[in-house]
């Protein structure tokens, strides 16, 4: 942006987001650990050509990136099921979005600087939500996969047999459930109060949940 426009925006206190909501569609995907966010996202990618960005995956990649100054911090938060300071996660998402837009993609929603993103496992805490909406891009909606702790626990323990994840064990899972209830539920309630949540019961089979998720996303894209 030319410096003069920056200056005017500053004086008028206009917030300029990195990505224009009119061109870039963002859908947040939330739900407890093991609710099926990642699984459903991969189906929705097939349906609609989204770029799927999992905040947890980006954090794990950063944790293992050589020379990262955040490796230890991220590792500790993940093991303890606590939330990584938002600046780290927001920046990783912003960078990944910029890269995808720069690269461009074939298919619906990606011509002329446009793009569509499923942001999975984010925002997990109110400060992340406010910062992202204000500085990065306004989200169109939250897709909320809800089910019982019993279902989530069974799925996570099953996944833990092969995932190699340091947090798919009973002790970490308990902590992650606590963080979800105490820190992430208020985020979902915040968006619910704005009328921006599509809640989907994700207790059923992958296929049945997918049908509902697809319909909810179609409704948003048609708006
Ligand atoms: O979404 P996923 O289960 O892969 O996230 C794993 C961990 O990454 C979380 O338990 C948390 O420690 C961290 N995380 C975070 N902020 C996010 C997403 C994930 O701190 N928005
Ligand atoms: Mg996931």
UniProtKB/TrEMBL annotation:
Subunit description: Monomer.
Entries under InterPro entries matching the protein: Adenylat/UMP-CMP_kin, Adenylat_kinase_CS, P-loop_NTPase, UMP_CMP_kinase
PROSITE patterns in the record: ADENYLATE_KINASE (PS00113)
Family of this protein: Belongs to the adenylate kinase family. UMP-CMP kinase subfamily.
Functional summary from the UniProt entry: Catalyzes the phosphorylation of pyrimidine nucleoside monophosphates at the expense of ATP. Plays an important role in de novo pyrimidine nucleotide biosynthesis. Has preference for UMP and dUMP as phosphate acceptors, but can also use CMP, dCMP and AMP.
Name of the top EC class for this enzyme: transferase
Chief location category: cytoplasm
Cofactor comment: Binds 1 Mg(2+) ion per monomer.
Start and end residues of each stretch annotated as LID: 158-168
Gene Ontology terms describing biological process: 'de novo' pyrimidine nucleobase biosynthetic process; nucleoside monophosphate metabolic process; pyrimidine nucleotide biosynthetic process
PANTHER family hit by this protein: NUCLEOTIDE KINASE
Reactions the enzyme catalyzes: UMP + ATP = UDP + ADP
Pfam families: ADK
Region (NMPbind): 54-84
Gene3D superfamilies given in the database record: P-loop containing nucleotide triphosphate hydrolases
Cofactor: Mg(2+)
Name of this protein: Uridylate kinase
Residues annotated as binding ATP: 34-39, 159, 204
Alphabetic keyword roster: ATP-binding, Cytoplasm, Kinase, Nucleotide-binding, Nucleus, Pyrimidine biosynthesis, Transferase
GO cellular component: cytoplasm; nucleus
CDD domains, per database record: ADK
EC number annotated for this UniProt entry: 2.7.4.14
Residues that hold a ribonucleoside 5'-phosphate according to the record: 60, 82-84, 121-124, 128, 165, 176
Organism of this sequence: Mycena rosella
SUPFAM superfamilies: P-loop containing nucleoside triphosphate hydrolases (SSF52540)
A single MF term (Gene Ontology): nucleobase-containing compound kinase activity
